[in-house]
Amino acid sequence: MPTDRAATTALPTALRRIVGDAHVLTDPATTESYRTDWTGRWRSPESTVVVRPADTAQTAAVVAACADARVPVTPQGGNTGLVGGAQPSVSGPSVILSTRRMAGIGAVDTADRCIPVGAGAVLADVRAAARKAGLTVGVDLAARDSATIGGMVATNAGGVHVIRYGSMRAQVLGIEAVTAAGHVFRRWRPLRKDNVGYDLPGLLAGSEGTLAVITAVLVRLVVPARRTAVAVVGVNHVADAQRVVAAVEASGAPVHAAELMTATGLGLVGRAGARNPLRRDVPYAVLVECAGTPDLLAEVLDEQDRVLDAAVEPGPAHRLWAVRERHTEVIAEVSQTPVVKLDVTVPSAAMSDLVAGVERLAADLPDSPRPATPVLFGHVGDGNLHVNIVDVPRGRQDEIVDAVLRLVDALGGSISAEHGVGRAKRAWIELGRDAVDLAMMRAVKGALDPDGLFNPGAVLA
Ligand code: FAD
Ligand code: MLT
Ligand code: ZN
Q1: CA 386 to ligand 2 center in whole angstroms
Q2: C-alpha count within 13 angstroms, C-beta hemisphere, residue 271
Q3: Quick one: which of 27, 100, 144, 154 could link to 120 by a disulfide (CB 3.0–4.6 Å)?
Q4: Domains of the chain by start residue, with CATH
């Protein structure tokens, strides 16, 4: 979208009239935390203005003012995204629309099992509200204390329970959003079945701030299992980890999570204080959570000859989960260069080839400043691996990203499993979608946001 400098100098004044002086931030020191992403790899220009509307009406007015001034708008929630999606990179004036003030949480509807929340409500708070009514949100992830429901819908976040409840799109019963034309789109009925025309809420899920600003969500709730058991199981091979998960599933105990870790990752989090619960060193470990008792889970594991060692506890088993959940922050701390951080899926049969292929690619890199080391982990039950490579020499980062994403494509996988495309993977989108598919996506973008107001530079070029 072309920008008009004369109009944009007046924009902060117009925005202040809508949201009040305290909620239009222009000082670069104050806007720093909004302009920098969680990984520190993506930064927006100092000229970026942050505006924090209190509700949907203010959001609509902010969007209209930005459209009038021809200034692009990037929605931002908790800023925990891992693909640079919430960091505008345009050279001209630009606005980050923070949803964090829209954090209201309504009453749980126990009959239709749902909860109305503002887009800026943080996952942990929504989970806590649901818990008081004996229910829970089907999606959970380690960034739960900061990630917002709006951001999670916008990225179609996955997390640890997709294997049981599906991703964020499946938790959306209703949605309210501001369109590029400044209108309020609202589908808001707690219905499990509603086939009147196109699934527009489903389209906004995963749209990464490029089609509309989500202002509120009617979140589906689920009944949690009465009892869960969690095991960390040591195995020799990735395929053995998959067999263990399949065996638990085949026993009739619904699997709630299946998370792969490697010896390298276990070592790193162990040194950071999350002690490996296994009594011996193992090449791979899989954390399995299922409905049922620890005795039942231990019984299934005892029957598996590929199990090297196992630690089993009743849920919630925070000590076992900490070993898995600490991976992201520990990896970010240890690398001397920006972490190469990818999130991919492959068909189950290709998981071992993916792991071996990534290890080969990393071994081919020069040992400078230190040997590049893959730290692979993730939602193995969904075929979703988080490919992190630490200490990749700065000049070789795009090359290794390219090689890993091409490997994933060759294995029949997806270059983005759950984090989205954002800015980080935009250059590789042709690996994930063919020409007809991309043309349809561009047609949708053109129809809903003809002037390219929302989040230019993210997802589609
Ligand atoms: P932001 O980072 O603020 O924004 C993300 C994207 O959504 C941007 O493109 C932004 O423009 C858009 N957006 C935000 N809010 C809105 C809105 N209201 N309307 C329209 N667009 C909007 N992700 C997973 O999927 N699974 C995981 O297991 C997981 N674990 C994580 C663990 C850690 C420690 C961290 C740091 C991140 C993890 N993530 C995970 C990534 C991240 O938490 C998710 O992508 C989350 O959904 C982002 O929510 P947010 O509110 O922080 O969004
Ligand atoms: C996770 O599953 O912990 C995340 O998606 C975060 C990451 O990839 O680091
Ligand atoms: Zn993940």
Answers
A1: 7
A2: 10
A3: 100
A4: 5-101 (3.30.43.10), 114-222 (3.30.465.10), 228-325 (3.30.70.2190), 335-420 (3.30.70.2740)
